[in-house]
């Protein structure tokens, strides 16, 4: 930077002191003067610092930095006095990275306008932890870590890590003082200030005597013989930035003088937040600004000006299909972390390139397109970098399968609710809930994680568990990169933009819409296949051919005596089957238990139905076998239907002798780990019989080990037909040659509905095996009626379901966030996907608000003294509301009908909402015409009458507007304006000879005859005039029209704008309590308005218009401030209600500090946290035995809605009733605080006692085969519930330890050991192998 020229006396330089937040001004050289004592410059260097010379500088650097050899050009004598750059550190390659101190002293900087005026301001300092100032991983807790379990799972005593992208908190503001980034330090130098002699953190400094404060003006000069150096050129580029900072300070001063004090404060805070966040995220400090090269400073300046001025719209999601990356892939990445034995696709190369650059990636592609390649490469990078990678999946089955797939390639560990294998491994596979728990509990292992891979991200749409994905993404620390794998969704860019904006990092979006194996879609109807879609193109001719076949079939069925063999039943019988099927499906609680006897008790009609079904399935399988389209997955949307369909194929055998032998050996080896009685379970025996014939069943009701056997055999290709529910498409990577849909309708837990396009695409994507099939086949079963073309198009080629936020507040989330002051629940709400669009508009709204606040305020000058127009305007608006309510009630009342007769004067609503129109009823409704015919005068002619009317905008309820109206004298009217005073004596025929609406003019006014509905009446007047109906409607007499206009105008002759209205109480005799109360309020308001000094003022209308504008401006500002505040968040009312509930039950205190009860609730992840916590604190489990405790706890984790009623002991029954009453009480408490909760539904949804008896007997040691006889719940659901119970026991045990209840802690350990045995806790085949 060139020296600043003010005069030719003193040359100085300005340097920013990054430690104290102030400028340092140093003279470069001085000129000898005759009287040195009188010409001492205003600023001198302290005596403790001798004058710098080239020798002293060189000696200092050599002594300080171990005497490295210096660059003679960089430290030339002509550069003396300049602020040198330290780039020689990099050239010397000296490792200057000393250990970071635990604490550091930082200044508390205050803007000059906030400092005490009379006292001398002295900066204050505070000692803070270095971890608070770190921008990366933050220390998650103050306690030492000793337990290996806490290292992986975390502890409730640890603080969560600081989420990445949370850049507007208190800690990051300390990193760069606010005044250092918004020009406040420039203003301080301009205004002058005291010299600072006390170093930071010291109580006493050196005594330099009486030093003068910083001056207001400086005398400087430039030495003419100073050689121009390259450093001078670099510094000269910084003068622009320095000038800009001065300019900014002056502009703020100018703005501050015009604005109110609160406005200045608001703007300063907004600017500080924006600039400091920008500077902190890009690592800019004022030292960098003042000492950097011109290009760098220009970049920094651009960044600052963008933030301070109009913020640019940054796109955090980057989608750039670069052909250069694909073509030069191996040159860009010569040393790959993992080599693949096949040529990578374009999207895989792009993703790997971005991973090598350390960027986050979103990959969207169809099923089997190869998204797992990206995850594998992330694992390889983590191994190469000696860091960790985490793979999360929504379903436990996917986790187990991925563990098996990756086990041979990488150092892999597995973490699920019930399994913990090798948690110290560099590559960890876990469920998303486990990762969320680790983040909330501050697990130390988070420090080592480099990559987190989210598989099946479209699961974020799941109503129950979708919130988990959003929580994890928001809570991930800054140093973790994100990889998202998803099926193709329409709003990929939107979702990636939300993640990027939340984490403040760019997200690279890549993927492909091309399927690795193209699909063809067919209808199976009456034994034939009709192709209806090929390569994403719908083929209407295929559907037309199927409809032609349907018509021929029904014609044949009409003349035939019965159904043909091999086809479905007739039309009428099919309708009966459909009704029976619907009623049977609705009873989804009575699922098939796997014993083989689930459908033998049906009546004859049901048996014949299943025979027809078996015949249809046999027809289909034979057709597919002939066309070589096996193996096939048949999706049925009911566990019961899967079992019955498989069992109905009794005579079908699809395997060869060698395949039968392979199946038998595999089953024997897999089931050999079960004890004797478990090997002979009815479900195990039944499934083995089906498997030997090449038929499989897969649904949630199967035992876990049975499901794994079916999955592994299907992947081996020995199962030819698999009847499955929807979970097979999501949880298992096992493609088939063909996919069949039993129906395109499903029950989603609430109602029967059609499949969504995304669901159909997910299941249909299992058709076609990459590398084996050239095309995949998808078949839709049609039994009797063919689906509509529009429905088929929507399901097959329709747009996939958009990713939508399912974010909701939970008590455990609130309690975890309240434990840490830095993380607020409001921050979590702001960063949710649901609030993404609102938060994206915040910078724009800030600019609008700033412009609104800077607008000059309009002032109303009252001629009567202190203005009261705002009060009058408020009264006027309130009176208008009451008047509208009264008018609406009057018009709806039956008492008003006798008054709505011919000749009644009414007021009609105006279309322009300015002056309402005066009218008279000419004809009342008839049976043939339900509308009124009215005669309306309109003040829209350029006449004196119009001018008089245009003086006001609205009706004056207080009769205060004395606008006059006048009519042309009779001598000035034309012949057409003359009228007769007598009504026509001719009796009318009741017809209307004029064309409505009929318009004309008379007496200087426009008029209109038109039809209106009673809703258009604004008011019914007390006046009634005599009209000539025949002359108005039949004869169209000009004189009659003129007379009617005159009569209406005469009603205004007393100066009122409108005639008085009918009194709703006195005239209409309305006695409704609310209406009478409203009427009284209205009359009181009118009295207040009449007493106001503005009443009758000649400038009333003008001032009312100004008052309206002022009020509208205030409302706009308030609305903008509300939208920018936390109160505008969608879930803020829900948050306030939940906080009140937590206070009421004692989880937090009035200061929102988490109490012991809240810490116990934080441990509850598997059950409803409030019910579990209350159960513990009410000591409901203390009197029960361990077996009874674990049985009662099954109500927290059992999920099936309908189950047979258990038979309980007396103690268990009493315990169940106590727990249910607790849930009802908590539901009522939440409803009391306005949460949308029904107590009965809340209790029934969170407590399901269907397996209490089963778990009780299991804990007592009863064999599994015997407990299955106690309930109609499928075996798979029983095992799943007991496995989850083990995790619940651990949570209750930890909670008891927090409470200090050692007896309950011991009881939980006994209960957990009691249920851990036999088939329920048999190890997964994916983990142990077969």
UniProtKB/TrEMBL annotation:
Give the matching Pfam families.
Answer: DEAD (PF00270), DSHCT (PF08148), Helicase_C (PF00271), MTR4-like_stalk (PF21408), MTR4_beta-barrel (PF13234), Ski2_N (PF17911)
The entry's keywords: ATP-binding, Cytoplasm, Helicase, Hydrolase, Nucleotide-binding, RNA-binding
> Mainly localized where?
cytoplasm
| Domain of life of the organism encoding this protein | Eukaryota
Question: Could you confirm whether the keyword Acetylation appears in this record?
Answer: no
Q: Which residues form the Helicase C-terminal domain?
A: 620-818
Q: Where is the Helicase ATP-binding domain?
A: 352-507
Which spans does this entry mark as compositional bias, Basic and acidic residues? Answer: 572-583
* Protein name as annotated: DExH-box ATP-dependent RNA helicase DExH11 isoform X2
| Protein species of origin | Cicer arietinum (Chickpea)
Lineage in the entry? Eukaryota, Viridiplantae, Streptophyta, Embryophyta, Tracheophyta
- What gene, per UniProt, encodes this protein? LOC101510275
